[in-house]
Structure formats: structure tokens, C-alpha cells
Specification:
This protein has 103 residues and is of the alpha+beta class. It is built from 2 helices and 4 strands. β2 and β3 form a beta hairpin.
Length: 103
């Protein structure tokens, strides 16, 4: 009985490992998009900044819907400038959008 349990657990772990390997992006597509930051603005809604090539897309994400809110040039974000939990994300986002208007 113990051998059967170990066999089932081994098969389960092997299957999970295989699914992880299959679902990972490879090659050029692996680095095509990157989530820079995101914050929850409601129970099921989020604002996400997605890096795509040389630009950032500010996206509103809700169940069943993704909306582009703004597109800004890619920038370097110092670790101290990224909003942490409890900091003022909307002010940070407005600052980034204003910098875009000046460029």
C-alpha cells in the first residue's frame, strides 16, 4: 500500500513538472512581454503596467476584459520609485504620464 501511494505521488509530481515545462515560453517570445507593476483597484479589477518592446502599456484588467488606458515610452524605474503596498500608486502613475507628455 505504501508503494502504491509513493507511485501515485511520483506520477503526480512528474506530471506537474511536465506541465510546467510545456507551458513556459521559449526563445524570442520568452522576453517579449514583462509585467512591470500592478495594483488592485477593486475586488476583481487591477491596473497593470506591461512592458512590450520599447513601450509600456497601462492596462485596466477586469474579469473578461482588458482595456488599454495609456501607452508610454519604456523607462528605467529605480527600485525606490516603484510603488509598494500602501503607497500612492495613482500619483506615481500620473507622474509617469506627465513625463510622457514632456518628452
Amino acid at each position: 500500500m505504501v508503494f502504491g501511494l509513493l507511485l501515485v505521488l511520483g506520477l503526480l509530481l512528474g506530471t506537474l513538472w511536465l506541465l510546467k515545462r510545456i507551458s513556459q515560453p521559449r526563445g524570442f517570445q520568452a522576453g517579449l512581454m514583462r509585467v512591470v507593476t500592478g495594483i488592485s483597484v477593486g475586488a476583481r479589477e487591477r491596473v497593470v503596467i506591461l512592458e512590450l518592446g520599447n513601450s509600456w502599456l497601462v492596462l485596466g484588467v477586469a474579469p473578461g476584459r482588458v482595456t488599454t488606458l495609456a501607452e508610454i515610452p519604456r523607462q528605467e524605474v529605480p527600485t525606490s520609485a516603484t510603488p509598494q503596498a500602501g503607497q500612492d500608486f495613482p500619483a506615481w502613475l500620473n507622474q509617469i504620464i506627465k513625463k510622457r507628455g514632456q518628452a
